[in-house]
Design goal:
Order of helices and strands: EEEEHEHHHEEEHHHHHEEHEE
Bound molecules: alpha-D-galactopyranose
Structural class: alpha+beta
Number of helices: 10
Strand content: 15-25%
Helix content: 25-40%
Length: 368
């Protein structure tokens, strides 16, 4: 028996750093993949080879606990542990993992690894669970085994966004709506070439800052359990309760949740100009209020927006490096991408990786 499983990359159209605040997000998936090949073993060992990072690791399914350092294998272990905790009877297997998703580029390479491994392990064990439970289990794997206090957006998008759709996800209720994108819209990804590491603490810092702000605000606003519950007018009225940094973190989250709703409306109206303006406003908020951008990303956004063909651009994912997402008309996409590439190459000295967002199936076993 040989199982082939895959998971795409997610591209968050808008709604950055809102998921762990119970807010709205609007991601879609794109056709770059993590692929896992799996064959069964007679014992209880998982032997896992990643050709992406050129490393092989093994562990037994009977003794699973988080390791001391959060390397790639922790994501695999976390998924196996989560499946077993959900009473899935796993069997030993040989796994070969390969990925064409740039790592640490804001395209959820970690969640894609989790989802593709989970699908492969389920496939080889002849088991299945719901997409919702799978997403939650993979999120938990990342939190417990890789130490990243991530939200639910990436895993939910990869498990649930249907082919070619965006997914409007309410990260508190987990209610979803499949969103058909306008037929003449195109999204271009351009990699700044700068890399972040989510495990380096900045990401967890942001989520702690949000929790601290909620605790302070809840003293006078008991209904605020998450920043999702905060209205902009209430934030402005309580500005003195918070220091400048916490106030800005809150302002980003509250305005960003509104931008998700506004982008959803603009997509429905086929108003690409407005989608572009919202992407630009999102970038400014991430840069100035949430402080998760960096000089190279700001420069890349400027290069992209200096092309007349582009309606707007922003950094994607957690930040501190990775890709910029730009929106334009489908007919202009090839010329617009070339413009961005030439302009960024001129300032950065090297030609950036680019990708045109392309419909993709959610995580799945290919040969079931
Ligand atoms: C990472 C996390 C997500 C989300 C984004 C920022 O991708 O895994 O849960 O918080 O950052 O929007």
């Amino acid at each position: 028996m040989l199982i082939h499983a895959s998971a795409p990359a997610r591209v968050n159209i808008i709604g950055e750093h809102t998921d762990y605040n119970g807010g709205l997000v609007l991601p879609t998936n794109t056709a770059i993949f993590t692929r896992v090949m799996a064959s069964p073993r007679e014992d209880r060992v998982l032997r896992v080879r990643s050709s992406t990072v050129d490393d092989t690791q093994s562990f037994t399914l009977d003794d699973l606990r988080p390791g001391e350092t959060s390397t790639w294998i922790e994501y695999v272990k976390g998924v196996a542990a989560g499946l077993q905790k959900a009473d899935i009877a796993l069997r030993g297997a040989e796994l070969l993992i390969d990925s064409d998703i740039p790592l640490g580029a804001g395209l959820s390479s970690s969640a894609s690894l989790e989802l593709s491994v989970a699908k492969a392990l389920l496939g080889i064990s002849g088991e299945s669970i719901s997409d919702r439970d799978l997403a939650l289990l993979c999120q938990q794997a990342e939190r417990s085994y890789a130490g990243v206090q991530c939200g639910i957006m990436d895993q939910y998008s990869l498990a649930c966004a249907q082919y070619g759709n965006a997914l409007l996800l309410d990260c508190r209720s987990l209610q979803t709506q499949q969103v058909q994108l306008p037929t003449d819209i195109a999204f271009i990804l351009t990699d700044s070439g700068v890399r972040h590491s989510l495990t380096d603490g900045e990401y967890n810092n942001r989520s702690e800052e949000c929790a601290t702000a909620v605790a302070l605000l809840a003293e006078s606003l008991p209904g605020v359990k998450l920043l999702r519950d905060l209205r902009l007018a209430d934030l402005e009225a309580r500005k003195a309760t918070l220091n400048e940094t916490l106030y800005r973190r809150c302002r980003h989250v509250v305005t960003e949740i509104q931008r998700v709703q506004d982008t959803f409306d603009a997509l429905e109206d086929n108003d690409l100009q407005e989608v572009g303006s919202l992407l630009n406003a999102c970038h400014e908020s991430l840069r100035d209020d949430y402080a998760v951008s960096c000089a190279e990303l700001d420069e890349l956004v400027e290069c992209a927006n200096s092309s007349d063909l582009i309606f707007g651009s922003r950094m994607v994912g957690a930040g501190f490096g990775g890709c910029v997402l730009s929106v334009c008309r489908k007919d202009d996409a090839v010329a617009a991408a070339a413009n961005i590439q030439a302009r960024y190459a001129a300032v950065s000295g090297s030609r950036p990786w680019q990708h045109l967002v392309t419909p993709a199936h959610p995580a799945r076993v290919e040969n079931e």
